[in-house]
Amino acid sequence: MTRDESGTKITRVPESGANKIAGHVREPGARPEGNSAEMMSEWSGIMVFAEFHHAASPTDSGGGEFDPVTFELIGKAREMADKSDQEVVCVVLGSGVTGAAADLLHYPVDRVLVYDRHELRHYVAGVYAAFFQDAVLTEKPSIILMGATPVGRSLAPRIAVRFRTGLTADCTVLDIRPNGDLVQTRPAFGGNIMATILTKNARPQMATVRYKVMPWAERLDGRPGKKPGVLVEREMSQPDAVKSLARNLKSVAVRSEVLVPKADSISEAKVIVAVGRGVKSNSDLEMFEALAERLGGMLGGSRPLVEKGWIPVSRQIGQSGRTVRPDVYIALGISGAIQHVAGISGGTIIAVNSDKVAPIFEFANYGVVGDIYSVVPALLKVL
Amino acid sequence: MNIVVLMKQVPGTSSVGVDPTRGTLRREGVPAQTNPYDLHALEAALALKEQVGGTVTVVSMGPPQAEAVIREAYWMGADHGILLTDRVFAGADTLATAFTLSQALKTLEFDLIIAGMQSTDGDTAQVGPGVAEFLDIPHVSYVREIKGVAGPEVGAGTYPLPEGAARLTVTADLGDTLLIQDVCLPALITVTKDLNQPRLPSFKLRKAVADKPVSVMRAEDLPASPKPYYGLAGSATRVEKIFPPERTVVREIWEGEPDELASRLAVLLREVVGK
Ligand SMILES: Cc1cc2nc3c(=O)[nH]c(=O)nc-3n(C[C@H](O)[C@H](O)[C@H](O)COP(=O)(O)OP(=O)(O)OC[C@H]3O[C@@H](n4cnc5c(N)ncnc54)[C@H](O)[C@@H]3O)c2cc1C
Ligand SMILES: Nc1ncnc2c1ncn2[C@@H]1O[C@H](COP(=O)(O)O)[C@@H](O)[C@H]1O
Q1: Which residues does A373 contact at the CB level (< 8 Å), separation at least 6?
Q2: What is the pTM of this model?
Q3: Contact B182 A252 (CB under 8 A)
Q4: Does A149 contact B175 at a Cβ distance shorter than 8 Å?
């Protein structure tokens, strides 16, 4: 039936049939109901993908840093692991990363697995997936947490499909049940509702989390009363992963990787002055910029101003922009649409809006009913 | 080059509300549209076809009215359209969606699959890479530039590719870096809005394709036909409950003259900023 004028019909990719994973034959479809209780109980521990960004130099100098979300994931993993008596295992993939991996032992982890290979110098989905598959097959974790970063969002679904398991994107709340089920809460339908999602019948249970949603793990020198964490330098050992790597090395070749000049990240700002459609013209932004500067903060905005090109995309706050957790968030002329407030995950929230019934007032800690064009100039005079 | 574009129909506005008493979605009367990211995917396919020849086939999974997505794609210049529609596909999570789409793709001949970077309703960015995994082909997410097809030989690449392999040279946007890479075909890419500006539907085409058929595929047309593989039954995740988002309780609402409001604000800001 898919035959058409051009004769498009032939099957090109061979049917791979049932997938054999961890000694268990899985059907080609998802069908996680097929997993037995014994099989499920083989999976334990919480795995955190510690995403490493190599310094963009042509040599394998080992420079670079972990994506900051890593430390938030470790904090959450530890909390859930303690609740359920499980271990926290970090996986580090990269080239020249053993030193950096060892540094993770200052955080409350039980083990850090590092695959230090030159093939991991750049992020190539299939190559990273092969190494990560090796780690998952070796460890059989019950839960895998990854950052909702460009790399995490590319890698996680490959792993989830490889293991025919559930993956929940952009979780804002995570918790664990006594039976080990991961309770994942995320905004759905543009943030209009929250959904609680479970992966009851498949393991590992996978979730991605955005930066600035969970609290940062404390840097410690050992956990009081606990065994210190250990670093495990690993080579690939699982035959399926080895095969997958061999194939993937022949499918993508990296030419170059260039650093994008760091736009000062709004995610890091302690004070954010955010402006919305209450702003009438581009030139008025100067006044709000001045307020942000006076407070040592950054100017951000709602989507309409980004669409007008008045505010750079990297400064858009909300569900389809950045998530922020500043100490103080000042919303000026923003109505408080759910997609906007979905991006604000903490701090003191102050809103100035002339419409007394604007939804932002249900969200703000301090709601100021007034015209931004009179309140802000007056404020600049007295600050 | 035979290109398949994955396109999805999504709710058109943010007006999907929650019934506060029942905690269920109010979706009646919400207009639907094509996922805006997928128009960039289609544009990329059409531009490639213009460059090197071939066909552009659109594949969409959804209810019968999702045919509108394929119609729109025809107006922009797509050659073929397949709508995957069947009751058993309903309730699919990203795993089951990727599986269903990959099953349809196994019945087609393709060199390249292009998906949007994410959908505005699911908003997961998972379906594209998931499809690639089910098909066991490479993928590159967040492509912001297509630099060439079967481009010049790789010089300083990390690892050599098979000689003469058909390939695409792309730039992926990884946030803090841009990764320029060659990927062997068949492959899947997902594209960002930076890649191009989607063309407008052509009035001429609109008339010409008015009767152009849309192929419909159901579960029994797919290579793996057992129904438990699809939809809710084939999904690994379950939505346990949905609820309206919590809002911070209002603490204080201030009204008054601008000067008075400004001085109160100044006091507050001195207290909360720079601690
Ligand atoms: C899938 C999806 C994703 C989205 N993602 C995002 C996102 O990431 N970020 C985002 O911001 N939006 C997002 N949106 C858009 C969102 O739904 C709203 O449309 C948007 O946030 C509204 O922006 P606004 O508050 O600036 O404008 P409006 O809603 O128009 O509000 C303007 C406000 O300014 C007030 N005002 C006007 N003049 C003055 C004045 N002189 N003084 C004081 N107050 C004044 C008005 O009373 C009004 O409340 C998304 C939408 C969808 C569907
Ligand atoms: N039901 C569907 N039909 C066709 N393509 C889809 C479907 N769902 C997702 N996609 C594709 O996958 C991309 C990412 O979607 P998502 O994972 O929902 O964010 C979209 O931009 C589409 O290209």
Answers
A1: A280, A284
A2: 0.82
A3: yes
A4: yes
The residue ranges of every structural domain in chain B are: 2-221
Q: What is the DSSP string of B8-76?
A: -EEESSS--EEETTTTEEE-TT--EEE-HHHHHHHHHHHHHHHHH--EEEEEEESSGGGHHHHHHHHHH
Of A192, A339, A362, the residue with max ligand 1 atoms within 8 A of its CB, to mutate for a pocket test, comes to: A339
**Is A356 exposed, middle or buried, given 0-12, 13-18 or 19+ CB atoms closer than 10 A?**
exposed
Closest CA to B103 of B70, B61, B67, B62: B61
Distance CA B166, CA B162 (A): 9
Extract the tokens encoding A54.
């190599």
In angstroms, what is the span from residue B138 Cα to ligand 2's centroid?
17
A303 within ligand 1 shell (Cβ under 6 A): yes
Mapped onto helix, strand or coil, the DSSP state of residue B107 is coil
* Residue B61 in contact with ligand 2 by CB distance below 6 A: yes
> What does the buried/exposed string (b/e) look like for B27-66 if buried means 16 or more CB atoms within 10 Å of the residue's CB?
eeeeebebbebbbbbbbbbbbbbeeeebbbbbbbbbeeeb
- Ligand closest to CA B125: 2
Ligand at shortest distance from the CA of B60: 2
- Using a 10 angstrom Cβ sphere, with 0-12 exposed, 13-18 middle and 19 or more buried, the burial of residue B20 is exposed
Question: To which residue do tokens 């795995």 refer?
Answer: A47
The candidate with the shortest Cα–Cα distance to A127, out of A247, A257, A258, A255, is A247
Which phi and psi angles does B92 have, rounded to 5°?
-70, 135
pLDDT (tens digit per residue) in A124-179: 999 999 999 999 999 999 999 999 999 999 999 999 999 999 999 999 999 999 99
CB-based contact A198 B17, cutoff 8 Å: no
Show the low-confidence residues of chain B (pLDDT under 50). 152-158, 275
| Centroid of chain to Cα B206 | 24
Residues B258, A2: C-beta atoms closer than 8 Å: no
Preceding peptide of B186 cis, ω within 30°? yes
Q: Is A287 within 8 Å of A263 (Cβ atoms)?
A: no
Q: What are A22-57's pLDDT values in tens digits? A: 333 344 444 444 566 777 888 999 999 999 999 866
Does ligand 2 come within 6 angstroms of the Cβ of B127?
Answer: yes
- Pairing type for strands B55-61 and A348-353 reads unpaired
Beta-strand ranges (E) seen in A97-229 are 111-116, 143-147, 167-171, 173-176, 182-188, 193-198, 205-209
- Topology at the third CATH level for domain B2-221: Rossmann fold (3.40.50)
Asked whether the beta carbons of A28 and A14 are under 8 A apart, the reply is: no
**Structure-token pair, residue A313:** 């995309």
CA distance B174 to chain A (A): 5
Say if residue B129 is preceded by a cis peptide, omega within 30 of 0: no
Token pair 């499809």 is found at: B131
Look at residues A69, A44, A67, A65 and name the one whose alpha carbon lies nearest to residue A55.
A65
